[in-house]
């Protein structure tokens, strides 16, 4: 089993799985995620959840942090 959070970017769309790196994240939390394009802003749509390993494409990219007021000002 692998622990994940699910995040959506921009206005809805597909859920992407990320490694929460031990942080407790709840649905609705605004997060900064490491993506192939660098750090990105997203919204958690499913908090910390365990899923079967075969449902995850490894390696999972990590949660960098919960979004700060400074992150939100830069959107």
Explain the overall architecture.
This protein has one helix at residues 69-73, and strands at residues 2-8, 16-18, 30-35, 38-51, 63-66. The chain is mainly beta. Strands 2-1-4-3-5 form a 5-stranded antiparallel beta sheet, with no helix packed on it.
Walk me through the topology.
Elements (H helix, E strand, L loop, with lengths): L1 E7 L7 E3 L11 E6 L2 E14 L11 E4 L2 H5 L2
Antiparallel strand pairs: 1-2, 1-4, 3-4, 3-5
Rounded Rg: 12 Å
Structural class: mainly beta
> Mean of the pLDDT scores?
93
Q: What is the global morphology?
A: globular
Q: What distance lies between the first and last C-alpha atoms, to the nearest angstrom? A: 34 Å
Number of helices, counting only DSSP H or I runs of 4 residues or more:
1
Return the string of H and E elements: EEEEEH
Which range best describes the helical content: under 10%, 10-25%, 25-40%, 40-55%, 55-70% or over 70%?
under 10%
Q: How much strand?
A: over 45%
- DSSP, total strands: 5
Cross-sheet strand order for the largest sheet:
2-1-4-3-5
> Tell me about the biggest sheet?
5 strands, antiparallel
Q: Which stretches are poorly predicted, pLDDT < 50 over at least 5 residues?
A: none
Features of this protein?
7% helix, 5-stranded antiparallel beta sheet, mainly beta, 75 residues
Compact overview of the structure:
The chain has one helix spanning 69-73, and strands at 2-8, 16-18, 30-35, 38-51, 63-66. It has 75 residues and is mainly beta.
């Amino acid at each position: 089993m692998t622990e994940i959070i699910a995040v959506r970017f921009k206005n809805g769309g597909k859920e992407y799985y990320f490694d929460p790196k031990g942080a407790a994240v709840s649905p609705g939390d605004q997060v900064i995620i490491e993506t192939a394009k660098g750090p990105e802003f997203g919204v958690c749509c499913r908090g910390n959840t365990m899923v079967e390993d075969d449902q995850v494409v490894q390696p999972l990219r990590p949660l960098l942090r919960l979004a700060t007021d400074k992150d939100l000002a830069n959107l």
